[in-house]
Amino acid sequence: MTQQLIKWTFPGKWITGGFGLTLLLMVIICFVSLKNTDEIKSGANRVQQTYQTLNALTNFYGAMTAAESARRGYIFLGSSQDLQRYYHAKADMRSQLQILQKQIHSYGSQEKRLVSLNLLVNQRLSLLEQSIELYQKDKKSMLIQNNITVRSVQIREKILQVMAEIKAEEQTHLQDSLEQSKQSIYFRILIEIFTTFLILIIILGLCIILEKQWIKREQIRALEFSLAQEKKIGDLKIQLFSMISHEFRTPLSIILLSSQLLKESLETLVDEQHLKNIFRIQSSAKIMNHILTDILILTRAEAGQLDFKLQVINLENFCLNLVEDLQIFAKKANMIRFQKRGSIFKANIDEKLLYSILSNLLLNAIKYSNNETAIYLKLKSEAELITFQVIDQGIGIPLAEQHKIYEPFYRCQNVENIAGTGLGLAVVKKCVELHQGEIIVESKVGTGTTFTIMIPQENT
Ligand code: ADP
Is this prediction's pTM over 0.90? Predict the structure, then answer.
C-alpha cells in the first residue's frame, strides 16, 4: 500500500511538473537573457561607433583648419616649416576622412553626404595646392592668391554645412541607440525580477507539496507501526493462550470426569438442591473446556494446522444433542428451542467444527439475553445448502461494530460486565470458512440478534 502511494501519486506528478516548469523557465530566461545581452552589447557598439564618428569629424575639422592656416603662413611668411605643417595637416585630413568612411553609419543619406564631403575636400585641397604652387612660381601674385582664398572660404562653408548635417544625423542615431540600450536594460531587469519571483513561487509550492507528502508518509509509517504492534500483541496472546490451554486440558478433563462420577453416585442419595453444587462444578468446567477448545481451534487455524474431516452426519440428531448439552447453561428450563425444516438431514460436515460453530453461537445467545426470552436454533436442510439460524432477543450488536465482531478479542461497547474472551466468533468464522460457507449477522440493539450460517453441500 505504501509502495503504491510512493510510486506515482497525484503530488508526485505535481512535483515532477513543478521541476519541469522551473527547468523550462530557466531555459527560457537564459535564452531571453542571451538575446538581451546581445542587444545591449550591439547597442553599446553603436554608441561607441557614433562617438568615434563624431570624434573623427572634430579631428577632420581641426586638420582642415590647420592646413588652411599653414598655407596662409607659408604664403605670407614663406616659412618652410609652415609648408611642412600644411603637408602634415593635409595627410591628417585624408586619414580622418578614411576613419569617417569606416565609422559612419551605412545609411544612404550619410554615405551621400560623405561622397559630397570627399568631393568638396578634394576641390579645396586642389585650390590650396594651386595657391602653394602659384606662390612658389610668383611670390607677388597676391591678387590671385586673394581670389583663391575667397573660393577656398566658400568651399569651406559648404564643407562645414555637410559636416553639420553628418553630425546632426549621427547625434540623432546616438540618441536612438542610448534610448534602445536603456529599454533593453529595463526589460532585462523586469524579466529577471518576474522570473525570480515565479521560480520562488514554484519552489515554495513544491516545498509545501513535499512537506505534505512527508507528513502523509510519516502518518502511514506510524499507522503501519501501530498495526504491526497490534498484530504482534495479538500473536503473543494467541501463543500464550495456546500454551495455557494445553496445560489446562488434562486437569479439566479429570474435574469433569470426577464430577460426573460424583454426581452419578450421589444422585440417589441426596436431593436436587444438594446436587446443584455438582452441576455448578460441571458447567464451569465445561465453559473452561469450551474456551480452551476455542483457543486451540484458533491457534491451529492460524498456524494452518487445524484438522478438517468431513463426514456424513445426521443433522437433526446432532442439533438435538447439542441443545441438550447446552441446556446446562440456560438461564431457565427449555430456553433453547430447536426447529427444523426439510426432510433430508444427512450432511457432509466436520462434526467437531460444527459443534464449535453452533455451541459458540448458542452460548453467546444465552449470555447476551435475559432470563425471560427464548433462543431458537433453526435448521433448514436442502439438497445443496444447509442453513442454521441462531436467534435471540438479547442486547443486540451496534451496527457500527458489526464488521469487527469476527476479529479475535474484539468485544462490543454494550457488553458491560458480561464476561467473555472475544474469541468465539473468530472461531465460528474460521470454521465456517473451512466449510466454504457464509455467516451473516442481523442485529438491532435492544431487540435481538440473528446469526445465519449457510454451508454448501455439493459433496453429500
Ligand atoms: P465473547 O466471548 O465476548 O462473547 P465473541 O467472539 O463470541 O466473544 O463475540 C464477540 C462480541 O460480539 C461479543 O463480545 C459481543 O459484544 C458481540 N456478540 C456476539 N454474539 C452476540 C449476541 N448474540 N448478542 C449480542 N452481542 C453479541
Answer: no
